[in-house]
Amino acid sequence: MRIVNLVILFFSTIAVIGTLRLFARERSSIRSTVMWVFIWILIGLFGMFPDLLEPLRVGAMMQNRMYFLFIVAILTLYAMFFRQSTQNTLLQRQVSRLAQELAIVNYRSEYGDSKKHDLASDSSEQSE
After folding, report:
1. Is-contact 9 44, C-beta < 8 A?
2. Domains of the chain: which residue ranges?
3. Residue 46, number of CB atoms within 10 A of its CB
4. pLDDT single digits (tens) 17-51
C-alpha cells in the first residue's frame, strides 16, 4: 500500500466525520448528508483499492484510468449542479409565495379592519 492511498483514506475519513458533525449540528439535511457520506466513502474506497475501478473502466471502454476518473468526476459535478439548480428553483418559488402571503397579511393588518368598517358604514348609509 502506497502513502498516497493512506492520505486519500485519511482525508475521506476526516470528510465523513466532518459531514456527520454538520448533520449533528443541524447544518445539513439528511439527503445532503447521505449523498456526501456516500461520495466520501467511495473516494476512500477507490483511493484504498484503485483496482476496483478497472471493471468500470473496461466497461466504459476507456483505455486510460485517469481520463475515466475525470469523466466520472465531471458527470458527478453536472448531476450535483442539476440537483442544486432544481432545489434553488423550488426555494425561489417558496420565497415568492411567502412574500405574497406576507404582503396579504400586512395589508389585512393595516387596512383590513378599516375597510370592513368603511364598507359597513357605507352600506348603512345607503340603506337610510
Report:
1. yes
2. 1-48, 63-128
3. 18
4. 999 999 999 998 898 899 999 999 999 998 888 88
Q: Is-contact 10 34, C-beta < 8 A?
A: no
- 99, three cell numbers: 412574500
Query: Kindly report the CA angle at 65 between 52 and 37, in degrees rounded to 5?
Result: 50
Distance CA 79, CA 2 (A): 31
Name 54's Cβ contacts closer than 8 Å, sequence gap at least 6.
Answer: 65
| Cβ-contact 6, 50 below 8 angstroms | no
Is 58 strand, coil or helix?
A: helix
> How far apart are alpha carbons 122 and 105 in whole angstroms?
24
Write the pLDDT tens digit of every residue in 60-89.
888 888 888 889 889 999 999 999 999 999
